[in-house]
Structure formats: C-alpha cells, structure tokens
Amino acid sequence: MDIYQVAIRPLFFNLVKADPEWLHQQTIGSLNWLSQTSTYPPGSWVNHRLEKSLCLYDSRLEQSLFGLKFPNPVGLAAGFDKDGVAANIWASLGFGFAELGTVTFHAQPGNPRPRLFRLPLDKAALNRMGFNNSGAAAMAARLSQEKQELTRSIPIGINLGKSKVTPLEAAAQDYLDSFRLLKDLGDYFVVNVSSPNTPGLRSLQDAAMLSAILELLQTENASQKPIFVKIAPDLTWEAIADIVSLAKTYQLAGIIATNTTISRDQLKTQVIEQTGKSPQSEAGGISGEPLRHRSTEVIRFIWQQTQGQIPIIGVGGIFSPQDAWEKITAGASLIQVYTGWIYEGPLMVRRILKGLLDHLEQSGLNSISEAVGLETKTKK
Asked: pLDDT by residue (tens digit) across 204-250?
C-alpha cells in the first residue's frame, strides 16, 4: 500500500487544503534536517530506512555521460531544492542525480504570494515563483561546508538564473558571477533562460543573447564542467534549431527540454480556488501532465536534429514508467521529475525504475543507454 497516495496526499490536498508553498517549505525543512543529520542518529536510521524503501540499484540503469556516472536516469528537476539545503539526501530518495536552484547571483524574494497553485484535475501545477532564493554566495557557502563533510553518491547539478534586478544587457555577467562562486561545487551547470516568471528572461533564448552568455561561461570554465541550456517548450522549431547550433558551437554538454509552458490549451481546470480566477487569467508557467506531449516532441526534434550526438535531459509531465520510457526512447538520456513526484509521492522513483527495467526486458535490451532514441532508430 502506498501510504502517500492513500492517506497523506488526500489529507493535505483535499481535506486540509494546505497551501502548496507552505507545504513545500515544510517538506524542504524536514529534508534539510535529514540531510544535516544523515550521518548521526536518529537521522542515519531514517536515512537507512529511506534507502531500503525507495532506492533500486541495477547495473542496467547506470550510465556514464559527460564525465559523470549516473546510477539511474531519474533525477530531481530544478525548482524543488532552490538553495541546496537538502543536497545530501536526494540519493536516499532513489534519485540518480539532482539539480539545485534556480539560484541567482543576487538573493531575491521572488514574486508576490500566492504564486504556486495545484491543478489536480489536470495533474498539473501553475507557478510564478520568480526565482526566490538566497543567492549564489549563500549556496556556495552551504555546499562548501557539506562537500568537506560528505562524499556525494550522485551527480549534483546547479541551475543558474538571471537576477531580476540585473538588466537584460548585463545578463551574461550576472550568470558569470554566479558561476564563479559555484563552479567548483556543482558536477554540472544549467543556464536557465526559459522560465516565464522573470520579466524578459525568455528573450535570452535569442541566439545572439544566449551566445554572449555561453561565451563568457565557457571562457571561465577552465575545469570544463558540463554546461547545459534549459529551453522553453513554447519555442518555434526554428528557434530550437538555433539553440542546437549554439550547443554545438560552444561545446555544451547537452540541452534540458523543457521548462514550464505558458500555454493554457485544453486545461480542465476552470477556476483556481485560491484566487477565484481561471488559469488563463493567471500569470505563470504550467508543469505536469499538460506539458508531457510537447516536451517529448521537443526531445524527439533535438535528437533527430543532432542524430543523437547531444545528450538531452527530458523533463515535463512524467508520472509513470511509460511516461519515462517515452521520453527516453524519443531521445532523452536522462529524465527529471518534480510535479509528478508531488502528485505520485516518494515511491514514484522506484516504480519508474522498476518499470524501465521491465521495458528493457520486453524490448530485449541490456541497458538503458540502448533505449535512448530507440523510437527513431527503429524507424530507419
């Protein structure tokens, strides 16, 4: 029995109707405590129980990509652990990697509340958080201390965003300032130019502006840390092709597809209870099930454009093993979850991994890497 789905989720979502952001803060606070006490009782006991219940280890799920070893392809997407306060605990929850942030150079409170809403009829969320975080210096101090105390068992990525107070013409320097503080503390880095919740940010996906950011970062990147760019699902195919070209030019490690969408097509939710307004009249990005098909289309397009030569991290609308398999066979080497994990609960990662192993057996494959892009390969 999945206690989360049977009791915990109905309690907080339906009975108590807890505010999503408050609930998130309580969760991240508990995970922060567990991360800090994971090597001491009683935290070590809880940590051991979590690993036993939630983790699944199988060599067929392992991959080595851009110089890093991933024990499994399911990662935590950026946005959940914005300040990196639970960096040491994500492996115990079954994840094969985790992405911290989005972090900005200047600490910022984000947009006014309420700014996070559940859309249960659509298995979705609407957020306009606005990169609320404590800033790159605070994250650097925290991760420096933790790195001295613990050895990471999974790769940890850091998602970088532009500070709201920084004008667009100074964006490249803003990303560089964050990277300089954090470059020795993350295993890979992500240039986030695709959130809809910072004014003008998505304009940085324009080839000229993105080129300026990538040029500065790669010049600074003497240790050759893998750098990704995270793109929006709402881009035209031409604009995505331009970013693919830039990824090749600046020797990026890969592309993350995709961020949240500003589309409101075919939503079942008519009114958001907290505001009394329709999703169409509320600002923010939609994540979850409504994003699933489009993000897979983008993954497929990038895979075909690059003939599988640029690694893709697929994110958007993953709830089940079948959802994960679709992303991987479309071309994603790794996948990330967030909204699905909120709806499905902590056992979701293990269920997905078990399902992926079942798919491998049914397809006669020996490893998850053989499944990447399988959909296109079999059509040739």
From this structure: 999 899 999 999 999 999 999 999 999 999 999 999 999 999 999 99
Q: Which residues are annotated as a binding site?
A: 78-82, 102, 127-131, 159, 192, 197, 230, 258-260, 288, 317, 338-339
**195 catalytically annotated:** yes
pLDDT, averaged across the chain: 95
* 159 DSSP β-pair partners: 101, 190
In order of 21, 76, 290, 306, the CA distances from 120 in angstroms are 15, 21, 11, 36
Backbone dihedral region of 85: left (phi > 0), alpha (psi from -120 to 50 degrees) or beta? alpha
Reported as a single tens digit per residue, the pLDDT across 17-27 is 889 999 999 99
* CA-wise closest residue to 83 among 29, 9, 150: 29
Contact 125, 119 (CB under 8 A): yes
Dihedral over Cα of 261, 298, 240, 368: its sign: positive
Give me Rg for the CA atoms of the chain. Answer: 19
Total-model pTM:
0.96
